[in-house]
Amino acid sequence: GKTHLSTALGHIGIRRRMNVHASRADKLFTRLRAARLDNTLEAQMRKLARVDLLILDDFALRSLDPTETNDFYELVVERHRKASTIVTSNREPSEWMSMMSDALLAQSAIDRLTSGAHTLVIEGPSYRQRNRVSPRVAVDTESEAL
């Protein structure tokens, strides 16, 4: 689904000698929180701002706290019109605002991200559900018919 498609685009970028960084959004925010503790936040943000293609997977699955909202805003502002960003989410960008703790930062980040964006909406049944093995019903072939 979304992750598969974004990963494929990342692979194309790598083949074109682009510098690509892909991360689940929650994991990225956790790394940035840890970077604050060891005083490497600026270096981490610079690295993320400079990468040719940043892929944020599963964005806004849960609400973002004030620090995560601020980090997201800063990343978007630093990358705006300078580098490509792919964001995958189970929510529409219009729903992201309610998932962030600061409406003004959220609106500003969303406007920047979506202003020149190509939006893909994947509809249909879940890819995972489609490939799920159905539970089998045990049939006793040794029993006599009644």
Strands of the widest sheet, in order across it, are 1-2-3
Q: CATH homologous superfamily?
A: P-loop containing nucleotide triphosphate hydrolases
Number of strands: 3
What is the average of the pLDDT values?
A: 90
Tell me the series of helices and strands, N- to C-terminal: HEHHEHEHHH
**How many separate helices?**
7
Largest β sheet strand count, sense and barrel closure: 3 strands, parallel
Instruction: Label the CATH architecture.
Output: 3-Layer(aba) Sandwich
CATH topology: the name is Rossmann fold
Could you say how many structural domains there are in total?
A: 1
Measured by DSSP, the beta-strand proportion falls in 5-15%
How far apart the termini lie comes to: 48 Å
Query: Which structural category fits the helices and strands?
Result: mainly alpha
Q: Outline the low-pLDDT stretches.
A: 137-146
CATH class: Alpha Beta
The global form is: globular
Kindly provide the radius of gyration, computed on alpha-carbon positions and rounded to a whole number of angstroms. 20 Å
State the helical fraction: 40-55%
Structural overview:
This protein is mainly alpha-helical and 146 residues long. The chain has a single domain, classed as 3-Layer(aba) Sandwich (Rossmann fold), CATH 3.40.50.300. It is built from seven helices and three strands, in the order αβααβαβααα. Strands 1-2-3 form a three-stranded parallel β-sheet. The longest helix has 14 residues, at 2-15. The protein is globular and about 45 Å long.
Summed up, what is this model?
By secondary structure, this protein is mainly alpha-helical.
